[in-house]
Write a structure and sequence with these properties.
Blueprint: H1 47-56, H2 63-105, H3 111-119, H4 122-151, H5 160-176, H6 179-208, H7 221-224, H8 237-256, H9 261-264, H10 272-281, H11 283-301, H12 319-326, H13 332-364, H14 382-390, H15 403-438, H16 455-469, H17 483-507, H18 523-528, H19 539-553
Helix pairs in contact: 1-6, 2-8, 2-10, 2-11, 2-15, 2-16, 3-4, 3-15, 4-5, 4-13, 4-15, 4-17, 5-13, 6-11, 6-13, 8-15, 12-13, 13-14, 15-16, 15-17
């Protein structure tokens, strides 16, 4: 979106506060935190770095769509895949318009996590903050395992651990060299990602219409044979088709994780009351073009029974690579696979960057040990980086099983964390909505609003928690019990209430009543920072503005 980035700090209980008091931790991307450490973070990202990272890394399209859809297609079939992404798209859209209404009115540091403190309960904000760190800490090893899977396209004889070590070394080196090196690397990776995502979708349409070297006009052939749906685990009838479709949902959620980062960036966006509503309004275009369009193309080009779609095998490939290879285009499959590899590398690097800054923010706010505040003379939070990197070692599970199966498991864990974030955002909006009603504030006076509320927020609440609750349903099928899958799928449903009620008990907080919700603080400064953008002075400036808006539109790529 227009102003998005990954590294953030959020609003938590401060170390200097008395028990039960919460306050802001500064939002940052290489910004300085005033903590007990002698050195603090420093601003090392140049404008071009931040612009590209905001457009491309702050959001979502990446290995989830490039790689994860392989398993989803084999589980749900082309129609099951498409319907799964349509349903998830509706959830994301509802979450984003709920979030957009709040952040356009209150574009404050900490985004949705700070808003939860303001309109629900500081303890709820505490739980959301740790969930946010967990999500990105788990995403990094998921992306590393995806990178190992993509490298296997060229060489199946080398143990996955070699590729994991290689990828982890590169990712850690980029982050340990500081924000400047990170910015340069992400600028390059992000540029490649923009061209790749646009190119493969266009190429996919051309191939489907018979424009490949073999001139095979595929059309909707694979919707007829092997068919529009897959009978999940051999279960016959409507039940098998329904379960196949449901199996797509969690993977689809992983593909969308990160869309909410527009809220995290709200506190530092220029002219937020003007730019944020525009960014939110463009969400549906991204959804239609990339997710719905991308999954439609994948379902057209690759049959659901293709054995290369199975991620738990050692030969799994991206559906886009399979399609290009099948079309008989020489050399291009390797080029595209290399581009997808940079996407996974980029995503892992930015995930580690984000999780390390998140744990730094938690420490600066008194909600994590102060050791995470230690930085080098150049402002690198090396303890936070190394601690978050420890979780990337989970990618070494590929030694005993395939990289694809590890990616599948870790991405599922990250997806559940992301769904819990969306659940928290939707609940926060419902309280925000109630507060507006009780205090007599007309929503039509807000910078951004829609007529779909509060129904859209309720859709977000019900669907996200339902998908999380049934995320591990496959282990309950006869003969399919797996303790590891059960624990990883349901751990957050156990730890989230523990964090929330534990924080309420420890800090002595209480839910904020609708009458006492704060709709006035920070408003004066926000209004002062708002202005109407002047019209373009000439055609060149108008073209540049259009180009920037298109970069934001085609950006927002991460998972």
């Amino acid at each position: 979106m227009d102003a998005e980035k990954t590294g953030t700090a959020t609003a938590y209980h401060t170390s200097n506060s008395s028990k039960g008091e919460f306050s802001d931790a500064l939002h940052h991307d290489g910004a300085s935190f005033q903590g007990p450490s002698r050195h603090t973070l420093q601003r090392k990202l140049k404008n071009r770095h931040v612009a590209m990272i905001r457009c491309v890394i702050g959001g979502v399209i990446g290995t989830g769509l490039f790689v994860g859809t392989a398993d989803s297609l084999s589980y749900g079939g082309p129609i099951g895949l498409l319907l799964g992404y349509i349903v998830m798209s509706s959830i994301v859209y509802c979450v984003m318009i709920s979030l957009g209404e709040m952040v356009a009115y209150l574009p404050i540091a900490g985004g949705h996590i700070k808003l939860a403190e303001r309109f629900i309960d500081p303890a709820f904000s505490f739980a959301m903050g740790w969930n946010y760190w967990y999500d990105w800490a788990i995403t990094s090893p998921a992306e590393i395992s995806a990178a190992a899977l993509l490298i296997n396209y060229w060489n199946h004889t080398v143990n996955d651990s070699v590729w994991v070590v290689t990828c982890l070394a590169v990712v850690l080196a980029i982050n340990m060299l500081g924000a400047g090196a990170y910015g340069e690397a992400e600028f390059i990776f992000a540029s490649v990602k923009v061209f790749t995502i646009t190119g493969v979708i266009i190429l996919g349409i051309v191939i489907d219409l018979g424009g490949g070297p073999n001139h095979d006009r595929i059309g909707f052939r694979y919707w007829k044979n092997p068919g529009p749906f897959v009978q999940y685990s051999g279960i016959e009838g409507a039940e098998g088709r329904f379960l196949g479709w449901w199996a797509v949902l969690t993977q689809a959620a992983f593909s969308f994780i990160g869309t909410e980062i527009v809220a995290i960036a709200a506190g530092e966006a220029k002219n937020p009351r003007n730019t944020l509503p525009k960014a939110i309004r463009r969400v549906y275009i991204r959804i239609l073009v990339f997710y719905i369009g991308g999954t439609l193309v994948i379902g057209l080009l690759v049959p659901s029974n293709n054995p290369l779609l199975k991620l738990n095998t050692g030969t799994a490939q991206s559906p886009f690579v399979i399609a290009i290879e099948t079309a008989g285009i020489k050399s291009l499959p390797s080029i595209i696979n290399a581009c997808l590899l940079t996407s996974a590398w980029s995503a892992s690097s930015s995930s580690l960057y984000t999780s390390s800054r998140a744990i730094y923010g938690l420490a600066a706010s008194g909600n994590a040990p102060k050791i995470f505040l230690k930085t080098t003379r150049n402002g690198l939070p090396y303890v936070a980086v190394l601690f978050s990197a420890v979780f990337s070692l989970l990618a070494f599970m590929a030694v005993s099983s395939s990289a694809g199966s590890v990616f599948k498991r870790l991405s599922s864990m990250a997806a559940i964390a992301g769904l819990m974030t969306w659940f928290g955002i939707s609940v926060t909006y419902l309280r925000f909505y109630k507060g507006l009603q009780v205090q007599g504030i007309d929503r039509k006076t807000l910078p951004y609003y829609t007529n779909l509320q509060p129904y859209a927020a309720w859709w977000g609440v019900v669907t996200t928690i339902t998908i999380c609750f049934f995320s591990g349903w496959s282990v309950f099928l006869k003969g399919k019990w797996n303790s590891a899958i059960f624990v990883t799928d349901y751990i957050l449903l156990i730890t989230w209430p523990i964090m929330y009620f534990g924080a309420r008990f420890y800090y002595g907080t209480k839910p904020v009543t609708a009458e006492n919700m704060d709709f006035k603080s920070d408003i004066a400064d926000i209004v002062a920072d708002s202005y109407e953008e002047p019209p373009a002075k000439n055609k060149m400036e108008a073209f540049w503005r259009w180009l920037v808006s298109m970069a934001a539109l085609f950006g927002n790529f991460h998972h």
